[in-house]
Specification:
Quinone Oxidoreductase, Chain A, domain 1; six-stranded mixed beta sheet; Rossmann fold; binds NADP nicotinamide-adenine-dinucleotide phosphate; alpha/beta; six-stranded parallel beta sheet
């Protein structure tokens, strides 16, 4: 493709809220470096890291170069292949991790082929939540047959954690608001609400106790989760950096076993053995709306940007 060809891409030029700083820009189509591919984007999952990074919450940990693109995962059709890349062809449908994926074209650094039975909007929403769920379950080190507590089970990661934990032979007690109790039940969890009295509710549901607790919501309840699980070593957070101050573990990137996790989850979905609930899809031009909704922390499953 001619390097002067412009594409639509979501960008921001300063830290701020979606309404204040996000806009559709027209910028040159990026080219893949060695080891990368470029896709014509079909769908890009929305993640809380998008608006946290944009809001300056990662300042000091991670440098943001302005103007910055947005989006770290996508599905689409391969249209350019970098040097040294084997096993993928122009025209293949793929999904995976990339940079600035909320755009008409994006570069992927890790990808797998998309099974036919997985719609593009689902595939574009699989990577981050699946890898994070798989990794934090690994980090919890619990055995099949035991019961875990998942704080924040109805969102993107929580929905994946519940299902992957059930496949590992675990019993899951998951927290969500009243409106998501049936949703959690359908995913295979025993639901309960969050808020005051959680310890008593969990005690009534887990007759043999809790083998581990995952903090997905990051709602500031690490001490309570340690109290419920009985020991800091039994608590893992993906969302509360203070976890380590209490002796609990913070599970962080870089992503592990990416290709295995993405392939496994997509194949389970294609066979009807896995759900990925998409609350809503938005065109690229409505990314502000999607990120605003995500920042309100009440999404069931995932939000997705679709690009035609
Ligand atoms: N460490 C890592 O590697 C890593 C990787 C990816 C993401 N993360 C972080 O993980 C967190 C979760 O990500 P996500 O994609 O799952 O977010 P999400 O989909 O936006 O989560 C929304 C869900 O949070 C639930 N929720 C809100 N307040 C809650 C509370 N006080 N207690 C329990 N549940 C509550 C909501 O349930 P109701 O609507 O029922 O209230 C909603 O379903 C984010 O902070 C994200 O930045 C970490």
């Amino acid at each position: 493709m001619n390097a002067n060809v412009l594409m639509k891409a979501i960008q921001y030029h300063a830290y701020g809220t979606p309404e204040a700083v996000l806009a559709v820009a027209h910028i040159p189509v990026p080219g893949p470096l060695a080891g990368q591919i470029r896709i014509k984007v079909r769908a890009a999952g929305v993640n809380p890291s998008d608006w946290k990074r944009m809001g300056g919450q990662y300042e000091g940990f991670e440098e943001v170069v302005f103007p910055s693109g947005m989006g770290v995962e996508a599905s689409g059709i391969v249209d350019a292949i970098g040097e040294g890349v084997d096993g993928v062809h122009i025209g293949d449908a793929v999904f995976g991790y990339g940079n600035d994926t909320m755009a008409e074209y994006a570069i992927l650094s890790h990808w797998v082929k998309k099974p036919e039975g997985v719609p593009f909007e689902v595939a574009g929403a699989i990577p981050v939540v699946s890898e994070t769920a798989w990794r934090c379950l690994d980090d919890l080190h619990v055995s099949a047959g035991s019961t875990i507590l998942v704080s924040g089970a109805a969102g993107g990661i929580g929905s994946a954690v519940v299902q992957l934990a059930r496949r590992r032979g675990l019993q899951v007690i998951g927290t969500a608001s009243i409106r998501n109790q049936d949703y959690l039940r359908a995913l295979g969890a025993t639901p309960t609400t969050y808020g005051d009295g959680l310890k008593d509710r969990v005690k009534a549901l887990a007759h043999d106790g809790i083998a581990g607790a995952l903090d997905i919501a990051g709602s500031g309840i690490i001490p309570e989760l340690i109290d419920i699980a009985g020991d800091p070593s039994k608590v893992v957070s993906v969302a509360d950096f203070s976890a380590t101050e209490y002796g609990a573990r913070f599970s962080d990137g870089p992503p592990r076993n990416i290709h295995h996790v993405l392939t496994t989850v997509a194949n389970l979905y294609a066979k009807g053995l896995y759900q990925l609930h998409i609350q809503a899809v938005f065109p690229l031009e409505e990314t502000v709306k999607a990120q605003t909704i995500s920042s309100q922390k009440q999404v069931r499953g995932k939000l997705v940007i679709v690009v035609n």
